[in-house]
Amino acid sequence: MSDQKTASPAEQQRALWLSTTAFTLCFAVWTIFSIIGLAIKDELGLTESQYGLLIATPILTGSLTRLILGVWTERYGGRLIFSLQMILTGAATWALTWAETYPAFLVAALGVGLAGGSFIIGVAYVSKWFPAGKQGTALGIFGMGNVGAAVTKFLAPFVLVAWGWEAVAQIWAVAIVLMGVVFFLMARDDPAFRARREQGIAAPSLAEQFAPLKNLQVWRFSLYYFFVFGGFVALALWLPHYLTDVYGADVRVAGMAAAAFSLAASVFRAYGGVLSDRFGARTVMYWTFGFSAVLLFMLSYPPTDYVIRGKDGPITFSTEMGMVPFVITLFVLGFFMSLGKAAVYKHIPVYYPNHVGAVGGLVGMIGGLGGFILPIIFGALLDLTGIYTSCFLLLFLIVLVSAGWMHLSVRQMEQKAAGTELGKLPSFPELAEIHDPERTVMPKVLDDWRPEDPVFWAEKGRKLARRNLWISIPALLLAFAVWMVWSVVVARLPAIGFEFTTGQLFWLASLPGLSGATLRIFYSFMVPIFGGRLWTTLSTASLLLPALGIGYAVQNPDTPYLIFLTLALLCGFGGGNFASSMANIAFFFPKAEKGNALALNAGLGNLGVSVMQFLVPLVITAGVFGALGGAPQELGEGGQLWMQNAGFIWVPFILLATAAAWLGMNDIADARASFREQAIIFTRKHNWLMCILYTGTFGSFIGYSAGFPLLTKLAFPEVNALQFVFLGPLVGALSRAGTGWVSDRFGGGRVTFWTFAGMIVATFGVISALGAGSFTGFFAAFMALFFLTGVGNASTFQMIPIIMSKEVPRLMPDLEADDRRRQSERESAAIIAFTSAIAAYGAFFIPKAYGTSIGMMGSPVGALWGFLVFYVLCLAITWAYYTRRGGLLYDIERGRPAAAAPQTA
């Protein structure tokens, strides 16, 4: 805080008002679709779902970018980041006027969403100018920039009526670009950033900035903000549509009425900051949740006619709320939501003064995601129930959960504080968990973990490692199921009315592989940064997005192809999970058991593909979820399908797996490492060689799994492929889980060599069977390929820890024995995760290669010949570097017992 005291009052006020003005303009741009979206909807003839996605898309970008923009603000300063963000947003807003098609509008809307990221830039920037005692007031004044939503609703309708929606976009674009230039010229770097630059202090690492995100308290704050801010943004977007539909209001009247809510939810934020400084944020949050619950209950009660049998005859009355009391109630709700927004952000610079960007970015991101998710859910609830007030009922339930969690946490804090010296508690203890302010790790951290110690392993280690393994396996199985669900869904889309071409269907089957592989690169380094327990919980929960999205999208044949592309990309969340899961499990087991443990985790996890391909064809034939799951789709040849069950069936299991990961898994303190420490693997030759070999095994497995159903259907149309295609992934997954011990005993290098030899023969068998038109030969050869890929998956991963146990001592001879072991384990885990990321691109390239080969040659044989040549390359690499006499693994695998090799290397 010492840096903040060096700023003069004049400098503080200039920084505050420049930031508030900039944020107001950004918020005006961010909510521009609440007005111009109505005109675009009529111009393009959009459905309700398409309209909901259009107005929500900028909210998604603005939310997701908040985390990274907060980090960049901490690293590069708010003056630079704020200016660039506004200029880029202006360019994207102007680009709206060039759009002519719905997909083009969605792409431009993604760019407009950058405006929403301005909030966390301003929070990180403004908080550095003020001492703790004034930060609540300062951030409350800055938060008044939410009034930009009211500015848009007041002014945009009149500009739209006079000159058209294009003029709205152009005027708003010019205004925000000019503000970006003014901010860069007039603003100054904050004192903390200036001092760090003058003293030559390096910017904090990503691991240091993200460390507080492990604290459960941060996620509790995020839920509060999901309601007070996410609910505010969602209602700001939804109300014009609600008012025109329910009350028949003109667009200008609806805009002004919605603006009254936005005004109340914005300008009183400054007052909320003052109240938080004076009475404490806990008190303000109780006011917010209490009054919001009452107001939302009133709003959520649907119009109902009652008849009472009185002594003089029936007495009738209605609970319907007129437009004027509706707007007044909304105004009061907005007032309390604005107080809550200030109260939430009062705590962040107090508890996390050195991590405002990262913590504030996460809280802001979750809140912003509420603004994206809630309008979509509002529309879905309206379609499902037919009741307009269902949107307010959802917000009422969120308030009850938030208030309950806060109250229980406060009570627990008070119980723990009994007998504690109050002077030792952190400032503003009303919402804080009793903890050391510098301690940011979650519970269940294993500070002492020595799996190579036989006594420790026998007494304690094995039990804990196996518990984490058996929680990890079902989570990974679900990840694979969601990742590959398109391999079955695409084969049935034409039957339920979707008129997609063969090329478009192959793209849908391929894109989950592309996004999953790309996410794996990112996920590869997350376990050492965040911890395996937290990351497994978050990555498993993320599967809910594609699972629910698919369930809703397939119910309407008018759903745009772009939506399906987006959902296919989101399925990549499941593919990314594998990298972090394998890296996490690798830390738990000793080298002698690592191969089998990784084989079980990966093999039974891979089983998710087979489970999905077996289960989905069954559940889509029945209304498993009743009316809640939606109506069936009629087939052209007669019959019905509940295609939505392909997504919905996984939701309850994902929820259970998420809870199990949070409650039952552990973090390992020794596994902690920054990205910079892990990035050393990019200089290791064997990292890149193993990427090639694992692409040959796992890339083939996941690529064949993704493309096998559609390839079989095209090559042998007379065969009902969906009845048995699950057998391929099943064989591959079980062979991986069941053959890990073979590599531990005989050596991964030797097993890998003979695996590639067998894959060459099996691929030639597939080519021959296609040429002869023999389905039996085709199926048998593919089963052999699946079996061999599973064996190779286990053997290649068994090789990596042994390779690094030899390479690290050679490359880093100055390390002590314990440091050498830790370095070897860290590099092994990172390489295992990274190779899995690269290999996962097989899920994209193999189905795409089929489609390209069919398009160019009329047959998939060209792609198969390419795969065969690649296997020959993998065979040569395995022999040249690892299994020949003099190769890296020759002595270990032939000259010593395999079980002892890792320990003596």
Structure write-up:
There is one protein chain. By secondary structure, this protein is mainly α. Helix 2 runs parallel beside helix 8 and helix 23 runs antiparallel to helix 29 (651-664). The chain is globular, with a radius of gyration of 29 Å. The two termini are 51 Å apart. 55% of the residues are buried. Residues 1-5, 419-443 and 896-905 have low confidence and may be disordered.
Question: Can you give keywords for this protein?
Answer:
MFS transporter, disordered C terminus, mainly alpha, disordered N terminus, single chain, transmembrane, two-stranded antiparallel ribbon, two-stranded parallel ribbon, membrane
Low-pLDDT residue intervals, each spanning 5 or more residues: 1-5, 419-443, 896-905
Strand order of the largest sheet: 1-2
Largest sheet: 2 strands, antiparallel
Which of globular, elongated, flat, extended, rod-shaped describes the shape? globular
Mean pLDDT over all positions: 76
Structural class designation? mainly alpha
- The tally of strands reads 6
Helix content: over 70%
Question: Treating each run of at least 4 consecutive H or I residues as one helix, how many helices?
Answer: 40
Tell me the span between the first and last alpha carbons: 51 Å
Determine the strand fraction and express it as a percent band: under 5%
Radius of gyration: 29 Å
Transmembrane segments: 15-40, 52-73, 80-99, 105-126, 138-163, 169-187, 223-241, 253-272, 284-302, 322-344, 356-381, 387-406, 469-493, 505-523, 535-555, 561-587, 607-628, 648-665, 686-707, 719-739, 751-772, 778-803, 829-850, 862-882
Organism: Paracoccus marinaquae
Membrane topology: Multi-pass membrane protein
InterPro entries: MFS (IPR011701), MFS_dom (IPR020846), NO3_transporter (IPR044772), NO3_transporter_NarK/NarU-like (IPR004737)
